[in-house]
Specification:
The structure holds two protein chains of two kinds. Chain A has twelve helices and 14 strands. Chain A has helices spanning about 15-25, 35-40, 80-85, 85-90, 90-100, 105-110, 110-120, 125-130, 150, 225-230, 240-245, 265-280; strands at about 5-10, 30, 50-55, 65, 70-75, 135-140, 145-150, 155, 160, 165-175, 180-185, 195-205, 205-215, 225. Chain A has a five-stranded antiparallel sheet. In chain A, strands 11-12-13-14 form a four-stranded antiparallel sheet. Chain B is α+β, with helices and mostly antiparallel strands. Chain B is built from 15 helices and 21 strands. In chain B, helix 5 (about 185-205) packs across helix 6, helix 10 packs parallel to helix 11 and helix 13 (about 485-505) packs across helix 14. The chains are: A alpha+beta, B alpha+beta. The interface of A and B includes residues 1, 40, 43, 114 and 117 of A.
Chain lengths: ~280, ~625
């Protein structure tokens, strides 16, 4: 189907983009890679009056090292994230999760900033960002502010992003040397996650020194599995210890039911998949 | 002993590649309708009859159509409306549907509840079969809506020697999209039910599922065999196909591995699924269709024209939409006339070019359409022979025809088809009274169906912690008779397997309580891709059909019909030791997991759509 008519503007700086967004008013929509927005427009589930395309804002592209952080421009594509050596070395969990997103065509167009701003509970990149303590740099008419991932995701498809703000950058603390795995469970290769588990561990002398685990699609927002993390830290990186810790995976979650999974099954999957993600990460 | 089971054929959506599209141009001498249809000839007649437009004023063109799978074996309201609008406006009218419109409004398939009762002796010999069907027609009857379950009536007894058989079908209207033909149309439903049931019988009598089938199937030396449903199976060799499949599969080895995994209590259990199927193809002998109250016959028409330069035009009424008729028909005519493959042009899909035909469905093209081509080519060769004898001043009986040339036996005198074609064109020296043409037409109405068969073996790994099913190995040995083009046959088998496996594991048209289709996009109606399927091991045995001169049987639906029960049998076999004896299709991870926990087949059905993922969820907002 053909989308409803809209005005289109393609600013070349962040400041221009923010001004354009303010000028266009409430019915404007920012378009990043368009992999979620275009189907919505074509099905006429949304009919914004103006589209502000961030594709030509050079500042929003690219990945750089910034002290003990890696900063990823909001418009960096999944394909670029997958192949970036800094991500590979310091944010291995993000690379592994990005590998599972949709298919190569989508990964060439879709962007990290767009995926996080869209905040689909079944999207695969929110949980790893939450697990690794990402911060999102947002820019609006009053300048820039930084919001931790834990505060960014508010509800289904709802974030702390204000109507007049755009995502500029995603900053992630380096997790150099951490062992990671993203365990995705879905029915066909390109489908959304029914449940996903993002896990990374720092193992020191056979013991788990630090652990970060977050779950995809186990609530309206990505959820940190803090009970699992607490059970792991200080313990041995063994299959038994992991199995015992993974039993806590569904604690604090509030999954909903759909055709693929009811609540009980999702909770069960969270436990099983958390165990598998941790075991793979730990290499046991 | 009696075994009673009830199976659910979920509603499916054909989901052809190209959504439907129609253009009607009323501005010429005729109304010209271009439609993405499988059936230009039937469509022409039907729109003429329903709109009162004289048939000779309607021309239907089916251009390169992007797939059909039965979903375009239909005369649609949209086509009729386009014609009426074009008539009223006097201007061309175009209609193209979106994918979501197509999923909602193009006809659906399957949707039956099948209650079966099988009686057997303790040694596994079957003694009777009772089938009671409840079939969902949807809201309206379309072209062959009520005929689909009836076609299945002939196939529940399958390859087995049932001495007694009862079939009853109740067709009901609902407020859903009409159902109609979908790849296999009645036969996949029947094959699924009987092949699932034969596995249940094997369990009840403690036999290997292949052994219980062999005990009951028609042996190769018992053909021709008249079945309890009244069909005469002309040829077949179930033993040969099964033996070959077992070898390719490594059946005994996989059974051993299955036992070991069960013994160890592995998280991932192995199941082996069997499907020894047959189908009735080559639709259809016209008299049989008449007896079943179908409106149309089942013949097919062809003409072969040898042009003055020796090139050949072939007109077929069998309208291809991706099956490769152009290639296969060219091969056949090249063989029949002894001309190069490249010298043959196949014309089809336009009622002005190809005025007579009954189109493409039901694996009929090769077994009916191509036989008409062969018969027309035979007439051309017979006439050419008379001309060759005249030109070389010999008796027809003294001529040998080989590689496109007539040779006077025992001499080196010969005349090529091309020379004869030009002699006909110039018409200077033809036998007295002979018309100067080297064309022929033929209409072929088959006496009988053809009966492809085969043995499909599937090894499925079931993750007992998550319920996820992974196909580890899939072997099929199909016997589709003589093969014209092995690559096309293999392609048909691969695509058919993908669709049959999709019914077993992935696809289901789901409606909510208010009757709204909730699987209205490809985000929710799950089609598998190559990434979700194993590499298939495809092989053949070749028992020629005796119902047509080429010995062919048809292959368009074999993979779809055979594979669904093979996969579900494998999934159930993997978890039977948990007390599971059935899992509703599609065998989703949640259903498999629930069945393992509870032994209930249909727990964990589709519910609401509140969690993330799926295009429905996108309305929440997007950047």
């Amino acid at each position: 189907m053909i989308p409803a008519e809209f005005d289109y503007t393609a600013p070349s700086t962040v400041e221009e983009a923010v001004r354009a967004l303010a000028a266009a008013g409430e019915d404007a929509k920012v378009i990043a890679g368009g992999q979620s927005l275009l189907p919505v427009l074509r099905m006429r589930l949304a009919a914004p009056t103006t589209l502000i395309d961030l594709g030509r804002v050079a500042e929003l592209h690219g990945i750089r090292e910034d002290g003990d952080h890696i900063a990823i421009g909001a418009m960096t594509t999944h394909y670029e994230v997958q192949r970036d050596p800094l991500v590979e070395t310091h944010l291995h969990l993000l690379k592994l999760a990005t590998d599972t997103v949709a298919d190569p065509q989508v990964r060439h167009r879709g962007t990290l900033g767009g995926a996080l701003a869209h905040a689909d509970p079944a999207g695969d990149l929110s949980a790893p960002c939450l697990a690794m303590g990402a911060e999102l740099v947002l820019c609006g008419p009053d300048g820039r502010r930084t919001v931790p991932a834990a505060d960014f995701f508010v509800d289904y498809f709802t974030t702390a992003l204000r109507a007049d703000e755009i995502v500029v950058e995603v900053r992630l603390p380096k997790h150099t040397g951490w062992q990671a795995h993203y365990e995705k469970f879905n029915r066909v290769a390109q489908a959304w996650s029914i449940v996903g588990v993002a896990a990374c561990l720092r193992v020191d002398g056979g013991a788990i020194a630090e652990a970060r685990v977050a779950l995809t699609n186990m609530a309206a927002v990505p959820v940190r599995a803090t009970a699992v993390e607490a059970a792991l830290v200080g313990g041995p990186a063994t299959a038994e210890a992991i199995r015992a810790a993974a039993a806590h995976a569904a604690e604090g979650t509030s999954p909903t039911a759909d055709g693929n999974a009811d609540r009980e099954y999702r909770e069960h999957l969270a436990r099983v998949l958390t165990g598998r993600a941790l075991a793979t990460a730990a290499g046991v | 002993m009696l075994i009673e089971r009830t199976y659910r054929q979920q509603r499916l959506i054909p989901a052809f590649m190209e959504p439907r599209s129609v253009v009607v141009d009323p501005t010429g001498e005729q109304y010209t309708m271009w439609s993405a249809t499988q059936i230009p000839h039937i469509l022409r007649l039907m729109v003429a009859l329903t709109t009162g437009t004289p048939e000779h004023k309607v021309r239907v063109i089916a251009p390169d159509v992007g797939g059909g799978f039965g979903g375009k074996l239909q005369v649609t309201p949209e086509e009729v409306v386009c014609l009426l609008l074009a008539k009223r406006l006097g201007k061309p009218v175009k209609w193209t549907e979106t994918r979501s419109e197509s999923l909602l409004s193009a006809h659906h398939g399957r949707d039956q509840i099948q209650k079966l009762t099988l009686s057997a002796k303790r040694d596994g010999t079957v003694t009777g079969l009772k089938v009671e069907l409840l079939a969902d027609m949807g809201a309206y009857l379309r072209l062959v809506t009520p005929g689909v379950p009836i076609l299945g009536a002939f196939m529940f007894n399958a390859i087995y020697k049932f001495p007694a058989y009862h079939f009853a079908c109740t067709n009901v209207f609902t407020n859903k999209t009409p159902t109609d033909a979908y790849r296999g149309a009645g036969r996949p439903e029947a094959t699924y039910a009987i092949e699932r049931l034969m596995d249940e019988l094997a369990v009840e009598v403690g036999m290997d599922p292949l052994a219980v089938r062999e005990l009951n199937w028609i042996k190769h030396d018992e053909f021709p065999f008249t079945t309890v449903a009244g069909l005469e199976y002309d040829t077949g060799n179930y033993e040969a196909a099964t033996e070959k499949a077992k070898q390719l599969f490594g059946y005994d080895e996989l059974r051993r591995e299955q036992a070991e995994r069960r013994e160890r209590g592995d998280v991932v259990q192995l199941g082996i699924g069997v499907s020894t199927f047959t189908e009735m193809c080559g639709l259809a002998p016209s008299r049989v269709l008449g007896a079943l109250s179908y409106a149309a016959g089942g013949w097919e028409h062809a003409s072969v024209r040898v042009l003055p330069s020796g090139k050949v035009e072939v007109v077929t009424g069998s309208s291809a939409h991706g099956q490769g008729h152009e290639t296969a028909w060219s091969q056949i005519v090249a063989d029949q006339l002894g001309v190069p493959f490249e010298d043959v042009e196949i014309l089809h899909g336009d009622t002005q070019i190809s005025p007579r035909g009954l189109d493409t469905y039901g694996s009929r093209s090769l077994t009916v359409g191509a036989i008409a081509v062969v018969k027309a080519a035979e007439k051309v060769v017979a006439k050419a022979k008379a001309i060759a004898a005249h030109l070389m001043e010999c008796a027809e009986d003294d001529l040998d025809f080989e590689a496109g040339s007539f040779t006077v036996r025992g001499t080196d005198k010969s005349t090529a088809m091309g020379d004869i074609a030009f002699a006909v064109f110039s018409a200077h020296n033809l036998p007295d009274g002979m018309e100067p043409s080297l064309d022929a037409e033929a209409t072929f109405d088959p006496d009988n169906f053809s009966f492809p068969h085969g043995t499909h073996l599937c090894a499925a790994e079931v993750d007992t912690e998550t319920g996820a099913v992974k196909l580890r190995k899939y072997v099929c040995v199909d016997d589709v008779g003589a093969v014209v083009n092995p690559m096309i046959v293999e392609g048909q088998v691969h695509g058919g397997l993908a669709q049959g496996i999709a019914q077993a594991l992935f696809e289901e048209a789901v409606h909510d309580e208010s009757g709204t289709l909730t699987t209205g996009t490809f985000a929710d109606y799950l089609l598998p891709s190559a990434a979700d399927l194993p590499s298939f091991d495809v092989d053949r045995t070749e028992t020629p059909s005796s119902t047509n001169p080429l010995g062919v049987k048809g292959v368009g639906e074999a993979g779809t019909i055979a594979s669904t029960p093979a996969v579900v049998n494998a999934v159930v076999d993997a978890v039977r030791h948990f007390g599971v004896r059935d899992i509703a299709m599609p065998c989703t991870p949640m259903r498999v997991w629930t069945a393992i926990r509870t032994g209930r087949p249909d727990a964990g059905g589709p519910g609401g759509s509140e969690a993330g993922g799926g295009l429905g969820s996108l309305s929440g907002g997007a950047q």
